[in-house]
């Protein structure tokens, strides 16, 4: 009988995903390497309240930002919204029921391109975290779009030393990658699985290991990639 494939997820995931993997002889252990906390100053809270009554164009690249802003704005808020998909877009649809999703993409680069191509967008509000990447706002500014950035949550790194050797490790964000490698090392045989291109790019700064990128930035799809990868590999 084959030994179970040993996988580490660098964030907590649904029990249903762990169960589906277990049915394929894959054991997933979980350790969190980052923590997110809503962090909205009185000044920014006031600003969001003002924007709630205006017909603005907004960007969301994280469900954390959607949740934080959603607690402040009016249910009647009517914004044009550009969003990363699928998870963040789904959260936008749940909270901003009177707003319009004007554009959505799987990564920041393609989302920026959609915004730039929409010639009606002259200024935009980017609701983000304290560790947001520069790519999106810089690309928009380069193309003459005024970007107002409002930080509504903080990402806190929680490095932990991992001594166990895993067959695969799941990464869901660049910040989790940085946190993981502050105290942990991996063997060359470990396969790295990432939620998207941005996280994969960050991994290249720390490892040359084989990296599998989820076709869609979605946890369920990432688990499917793990199952697919190991389904034809016989473990010792």
Features of this protein?
236 residues; alpha/beta; Rossmann fold; 2 domains; 6-stranded mixed sheet; 5-stranded parallel sheet; 9 helices; 35% helix; uroporphyrinogen-III synthase activity; 4pyrrol_synth_uPrphyn_synth; Uroporphyrinogen-III synthase
What does this 3D model show about the protein?
This protein is of the alpha/beta class. It has two domains: 5-33 and 158-233, Rossmann fold (3-Layer(aba) Sandwich), CATH 3.40.50.10090; 37-155, Rossmann fold, CATH 3.40.50. It is 35% helix and 25% strand. It has nine helices and eleven strands. The longest helix is centred in the last third of the chain and has 12 residues, at 219-230. It is elongated, with a radius of gyration of 19 Å. Pfam families: HEM4.
Decide which structural class fits the backbone.
alpha/beta
- Poorly predicted regions are none
What string, H for helix and E for strand, traces the elements in order? EHEEHEHEHEHEHEEHEHEH
- Examine the secondary-structure arrangement and name the CATH architecture of the largest domain: 3-Layer(aba) Sandwich
Give the overall average pLDDT: 95
CATH domain fold name of the largest domain: Rossmann fold
* CATH class division of the largest domain: Alpha Beta
Major sheet strand order:
3-8-7-4-5-6
- Number of helical stretches of at least 4 residues: 9
Shape, principal axes of CA atoms: elongated
Q: Tell me the total number of β-strands.
A: 11
């Amino acid at each position: 009988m084959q030994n179970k494939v040993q996988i580490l997820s660098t964030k907590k995931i649904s029990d249903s995903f762990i169960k589906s993997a277990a049915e394929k002889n894959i054991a997933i252990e979980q350790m969190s390497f980052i923590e997110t906390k809503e962090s909205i100053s009185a000044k920014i809270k006031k600003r969001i309240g003002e924007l709630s009554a205006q017909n603005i164009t907004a960007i969301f690249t994280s469900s954390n930002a959607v949740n934080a802003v959603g607690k402040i704005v009016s249910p009647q808020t009517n914004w044009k919204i550009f969003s990363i998909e699928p998870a963040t877009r789904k959260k936008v649809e749940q909270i901003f029921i009177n707003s319009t999703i004007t554009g959505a993409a799987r990564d920041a680069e393609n989302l920026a391109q959609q915004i730039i191509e929409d010639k009606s967008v002259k200024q935009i509000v980017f609701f983000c975290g304290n560790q947001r990447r520069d790519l999106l706002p810089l690309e928009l500014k380069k193309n003459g779009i005024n970007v107002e950035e409002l930080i509504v949550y903080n990402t806190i790194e929680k490095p932990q030393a991992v001594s166990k050797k895993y067959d695969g490790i799941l990464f869901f964000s660049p910040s989790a990658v940085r946190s993981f490698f502050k105290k942990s090392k991996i063997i060359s045989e470990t396969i790295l699985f990432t939620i998207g291109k941005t996280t994969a790019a960050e991994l290249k700064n720390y490892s040359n290991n084989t990296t599998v990128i989820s076709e869609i930035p979605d946890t369920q799809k990432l688990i499917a990639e793990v199952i697919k990868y190991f389904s034809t590999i016989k473990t010792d």
